[in-house]
Write a structure and sequence with these properties.
Keywords: ATP-binding, Hydrolase, Membrane, Nucleotide-binding, Transmembrane, Transmembrane helix, Transport. GO terms for molecular function: ABC-type transporter activity; ATP binding; ATP hydrolysis activity. By secondary structure, the protein is α/β, with parallel strands linked by helices. It has four domains: about 70 residues; about 280 residues, P-loop containing nucleotide triphosphate hydrolases (Rossmann fold, 3-Layer(aba) Sandwich), CATH 3.40.50; about 45 residues, no CATH class; about 260 residues, no CATH class. The chain has 25 helices and 18 strands. The strands form six sheets. Strands 12-13-14-9-15-16 form a six-stranded mixed β-sheet, sandwiched between helices. A four-stranded antiparallel β-sheet has the order 8-7-10-11, covered by helices on one side. A two-stranded antiparallel ribbon has the order 1-2. A hairpin with a 6-residue loop joins β3 and β4. α19 packs parallel to α25. The N and C termini lie far apart (about 85 Å).
Amino acid sequence: MVKCPPGFFCPENSAQPVYCCAGYYCSIDAKSMTLCPEGYVCSIGTVYPTSCNNLAFCPEGSSKANKFLVFVLVILIAIAIIVLFKIKKVRNQMKSAKYFRLLTEQRMRLERTLDPVKKTFDIEFENLGLILPSGIEIMKGVSGKLTHGRTCAIMGPSGAGKTTFVTLLTGKVKRTSGKVKVNGVNESLEKYRKLIGYVPQEDVMLRELTVRDILVHSALMRLPNDMDRAIKKQKVIEVIEFLELSHVMDSIIGNEEQRGISGGQRKRVNIGMELVAEPSVLFLDEPTSGLDSATALEVCNLLKKIAHNQGMTVVAVIHSPSPRAFNTFDDLLLLGKGGRILYFGPRNKALEYFESLGYCCPYEESPADFMMEVATGKVKPVDRKDIIVTDLFEAWERYHESGKAVFKPAHDIKIDISNEETPHQNYAKLLWVEICLPYIQNIAEYLTDVTLEFFLFLRYTFYFYQRDPIRETPNVFIAFLLLFKRACLQLYRNRMQFLLDQLLHLVCGMLISLASSDMDYIGKPPKEICEFTPFVLLPICLKPKDLIQDVGTFMAVGVTFSGISAGFSTFGYEKVVYWRDTSVGMCTIPYIMAKIVADIPRLVIASLMFSLAFIIFYSFKTTLIQIYMIILLSYIAAWTMGYFISALVTKEKISLAGAGFALGWGMVFSGVTPSLEKVKSDDIFTYIKWLWDISAPRWAVEALYLKELEPRIWHEIKTEPLSHTYHFSDYSQCLWNILSIALGWAILAFLAMKLTHRDNQK
């Protein structure tokens, strides 16, 4: 006679046990079976009925809880979110009214102008040159002077080095020859980085924010730390009025999908981001690109007004301006291919210079277009058809030295072949110069650059130890608060978008719940019964029906997909904004931390939506709190994976990389297929088994498995070692492992943001 184990039903004189039926519970001695009472749920093998929680309805005889009351909680959460957004909107309207009042006062006090800059810069440069490690010279002998209170247009054909000139002058790229003087002193402009504004060709800004949000943030981040906050905001008001943006002050920037301000207004905001920082020098890259002629003229007039009224040094790389736009510039730097000067001086003297060389501009042709044709060699002097572009370089050098613009007579070209190398020597030199040397130099410069920036960060973090002699801007703690506020404005401005995002997490959780609805753990029969089982069915009899690990896999894959896709948007779609901010002195650590902290509310709500949806169809035995804890930590790990992927790959490849990550970590490295037993014992996994140790889904699956089996009363759970190498005592360690892995991914995301695309961060 064999004792009937708990979970089975063995009435008097029964030959073999049967599972206690669903909708009923059996006594501990397995001799009686009772209908499950109202308010409780009894699945197969129930000994103690499980109480339904407040989110479920369980009539008498329930084998599964009816949990559609979850939707009531979801609706209540949505209502709370809507109310919070409404309160936030009212506060924003009050703030907007305050700014409009200040704008009105500004109009009554002054005309549209800005105060002169406090420090003016005259920049001299002599024989600037750049030779690449491959030996190619892309800039040579560029000399001249940029004077404050004047605008200078830089023109030239493609490959002339217009942008290269700006990067050499500002110190973003190390020059190989030449020197720079600032107000007559030999020093690099890089020293004055906080006093230099740079307006990129593309309108790089957060498109979800309003004009006011962007300008206020730029002012608070870049103006001196000892300047009163009210004065900084007054500066923003002045710039808004000066740029004639008051009527769109509270309009979002917008993009291709969401309509915002116009292209010309966006260009003004792009310039305004630099003006509110009170720079002494303003560089602009193609400020008129993508604009119609009327708007381009407005922008050029604006630059002229800035230079003349504020005493600022304004330098703009410009391409094919209209005659009227071209005439707004005071000076012209015309470069030819190879980065050599064709002309540098007053704009209104340029045609006179080229006429002295025999170039005559037709009356009906734009002077700017004519000089571009001269620079490309399409136009020849009237009396010298043999002249090529290189002759113009030499003519300018003679003019610069003697004041006379003449062409040098042609000479015979002599070739010295005394040192001609053998083909073998040429190949060896080519291998070294073209491949090895640039690679070694790049690594050395990269390591030096990163090390220097790290020590500068440590020095300026502890501002009481070392202050910035040029401009003391907010320290990392204040910067964190400002960046956090901006991130919150970006994330939580659009109520409908936020609700739709949470709805997607709810749907994902519901799909996973539906897939797991019939998955459960049913204990194995007593071993005495298995002795009479046919050999073919013996493996089934000796093992329980264990599908909890599969539930964990479904959950892990769903959470990983959802979390990674949500984490993409934090950094992946605004890397260019990050590059622009770091180029003017923003530290990476407060930026990363601010974005992560701002993500916490939507991460917490997203994991709650997934958890509530997950329990709708899945018959769980543990508590909702335990399930939510596992899913929340898994979401954190997946979210930080999304950070890392988006920081490392381009936004065009983010989706594919995210899908690969989710499938790899959520399925292959979850410890289910292949199993942990196989991974630990099979020699093929010897050198890669550590991948399972750093997989958050692997620990999430184990944590869910342990908590789901803990309340069950099957005999083998209480008396035998658990399957899959799991142990009940490891639950807390599983949670800590998930959190540690999430921290690791966050650190990798920080390193990827900081150590890649270094040139764009200067």
